[in-house]
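Team,

Forwarding the record for the chain on the shared tracking sheet. I've put the sequence and predicted structure together so nobody has to dig through attachments.
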Amino acid sequence: MCVWEYDIVSGALSFSREFGPMFGYAESEIPGRIDAWEALVHPEDVGRSRTMMARHFRGDSEALDIEYRVRMKGGGWGWLHTVGRVNSRDARGRAVRMSGTHRDVTGMRQTGERLRLRELAIEAATNAIILVDAQAPDRPIVHVNRAFQAMTGYPTEEVIGRNCRFLQGDDREQPDLVRLRDAITRGAEATVLLRNYRKDGTLFWNSLRVSPVRNEAGTVTHFVGIQTDVTELKTYQLELEHRANYDGLTGLANKNLLTDRLEHASTVAQRSGRRFGLLYLDLDRFKLVNESLGHNNGDSMLKCVAARLKAAVREADTVARLGGDEFAVLLHELDNPAAVSSIAQKILRTLEEPLDIGNQQVFSSASIGICIGPDDGADADTLLKNADAAMYRAKGSGRNQLCFYTEDLNANALDRLRLDADLRHALATEAFELHYQPRVSLTTGAITSVEALIRWRQPGHGLVSPASFIPLAEETGLIVPMGAWVLRTACRQMRVWRDAGLRDLRVAVNLSPRQFRQPDLIRMIAGILDDEGLEAAYLELEITEGVAMHDPVNNQKVLEDLSGRGIALAIDDFGTGYSSLAYLKRFPIDYLKIDQSFVRGLPGDEDDENIVRSIIALAKTLKLTVIAEGVETEAQREFLRRYECDEMQGYLFSKPRPAAELSELLFA
């Protein structure tokens, strides 16, 4: 403790010699004026200190009594308890001098904080905690936390002073009660499992950990019991067993159970000579439904499909969901293997019936691969692999098809594996390149922006079409690092063009569905712009309307964040998805791009003409710039110009070109 004096008129301060060691200051470092003293006080405490001082100066308090933080010499903050009073006033009653004492209460504060945190921890614990007096007769309960009350239904006032045995009611013949009594008698720790009963009489299983609390002399003064209600855990263990074998969404068998039944069917078939069939189904264009109508409606569709599959086969057969939109049907002990084809056809017809999803009708179909066991595989893994390969052949044949497994399908599967490996190698070695296709104004003919398009120059194959590797990249997740590379490379090139004087140009980059769903999308884009030194106004991001309408509420927030940073936004391939105008008008979109499938029929195709005119009119109503993709003829350009389309993009003006080649056009 130290003594201090304060000359209020001059602002001078003095301290007894105990102050310096209190917080580590040398005598020469001790403040001599009030302003220097306040510089040591924590900024959050200065205002409170001044207010209480002023109250005492006015006579509103008998003494100054306050605790606050003061900076310590070595850094950090110590707590000071200051007590003082005015001991001299002038003729007008104004305070002129005061004195008092400082006391370091840092340790007390820390001790109190630790005790407070311990008490909070006990009350906040999810496990029930009981404190029992070990020295009082019948060892009564002296404290329980909130979790105990929630677990047992007993309020605090009904348990304090009672022995814990009331929780077992009349159920006293429990082996672990003997172990518990023995541990308490010996003052030892124990973990037991007991049947306890809540206030309403319901049973719950209680895992109880009991520990003795000893005083400094080693005498047990209390016991602490930690209770865990394991009734739910036991129920959960049964649920886990169910989940290990059944799909949570549809209630169908899952891959684990299907594999077991396939192995059993193979064993039976080898012994009896009777064959079985395996159908591998993948819903056609389910991703489009999921993205346009949302995951909830997508889940509803999967459940409807599951019900139809079960209704289409025998009760003894197994229908399984393998994950996503993939299903399998195991047809046990076929009398005639040729019947598999008719069953598969029946399933296709069943799935073609419209589904009522989200207040609208949705049409579905499937691609089905078929294996006959054990001819097409002696084990479950081989059968599933071969049926999967047959399914991909069916999908590649135009969807809504079925295909039986043949040996040549293995070659196609290996090709996909090789392509995946080559893609990963290309990504690791940055073997991709960007080409840029200009977008031009239909009014002035000036280039307004360029779209960055990824190209892969594969050794021995030349440029590989994006259509052959982008779907696989999206499926495997490689599209995320690939998309980040495209964005960074495009921004870097745009910075070069901007520094060269192209101040009215933007670069447009496509975001794939998987990219757009990244939780760190905003941070990733902002980081790339910062790294490359490119202002957001030079970047445009394109997403399809299917991506935009997937979870539109959250997507609106993402789009608003991007737009708020100055990034231009475009809806690509407009007209091919399921847009909701209610959301479209709320999205901060700058551009609509008419899909080239509608431009291709211009002029002459009445349907395409009507669609394009409608999209242009919609864009004008929403005050959006409208762009036509895939413009290849003068007639198409004239039609678009006549109906006031703003911009065009296509081979009529320029094919996608490497940056160096496009620079010649940009600076011409």
